[in-house]
Specification:
The complex is a heterodimer. Chain A is mostly beta strands. In chain A, 0% of the residues lie in helices and 56% in strands. In chain A, strands 2, 4, 5, 9, 10 and 11 form a 6-stranded mixed sheet that branches. Chain A has a 5-stranded antiparallel sheet with strand order 1-3-8-7-6, with no helix packed on it. In chain A, 35% of the residues are buried. By secondary structure, chain B is mainly beta. In chain B, strands 2, 4, 5, 6, 9, 10 and 11 form a 7-stranded mixed sheet that branches. The chains are: A mainly beta, B mainly beta. Chains A and B meet through strand 5, strand 9 and strand 10 of A and strand 5 and strand 10 of B.
Chain lengths: 110, 112
């Protein structure tokens, strides 16, 4: 059974600081997704990572994938308040199902 | 842009009632999914469908059924609602099974 763990579960950080969210998964997979969810809203797709060593960047967010370590990271550079949200990773498994992590709630303070 | 809509944002039902949650997508996607989201548990897949009239069980199908009579519409049915089905329900669609899933706004269901 595919298990996906994210850490930390909650992250409070100051504006301008850097931090990384980690997503570990238990079995081999060829695709990993990052989503963002604002309070009371639905999930918005951020990144799709499809191969070992894949790196994608959008603004202050950068995601990477290491399939050998079964690890993806979401790095936040010089955080701003607008990045406050919950971030989920999701891993593709058998029968094309996605298994989601429990989410990391990010709070960026002034 | 892909648009996934859900019939209700908030729904309050009583224990034992039959509940229908509707989802419609406008991008001719082959695949549609139903998840429930609970605090501390992330999203869990209830059912998905890869074609009209086809369905597959997800990780937590007990107490739920689905219907897909038309490509654009995927319904989640709670045959006899129970309080432990109080949750946020999210619908998603994708062009192919390995593609990014696009999510609807969610339905927050409360069962009293």
């Amino acid at each position: 059974e595919l298990k996906v763990e994210q850490n930390p579960l909650f992250l409070s950080m100051q504006e301008g600081k850097n931090y990384t969210i980690y997503c570990n998964y238990s079995t081999t997979s060829d695709r990993l997704y990052w989503y963002r969810q604002d309070p009371g809203k639905s999930l918005e797709s951020l990144f799709v990572l499809l191969s070992n060593g894949a790196v994608k960047q959008e603004g202050r967010l950068m995601a990477s994938l290491d399939t050998k370590a079964r690890l993806s990271t979401l790095h936040i550079t010089a955080a701003v308040h607008d990045l406050s949200a919950t971030y989920f990773c999701a891993v593709g498994g058998a029968a094309s199902k996605l298994t989601f992590g429990t989410g990391t709630r990010l709070q960026v303070t002034l | 842009d892909v648009k996934v809509t859900q019939s209700s944002r908030y729904l309050v039902k009583r224990t034992g009632e039959k509940v229908f949650l509707e989802c419609v997508q406008d991008m001719d996607h082959e695949n549609m999914f139903w998840y429930r989201q609970d605090p501390g548990l992330g999203l869990r897949l209830i059912y998905f469908s890869y074609d009209v009239k086809m369905k597959e069980k997800g990780d937590i199908p007990e107490g739920y059924s689905v219907s897909r009579e038309k490509k654009e519409r995927f319904s989640l049915i709670l045959e006899s609602a129970s309080t432990n089905q109080t949750s946020m329900y999210l619908c998603a669609s994708s062009l192919i099974l390995t593609d990014t899933q696009y999510f609807g706004p969610g339905t927050r269901l409360t069962v009293l």
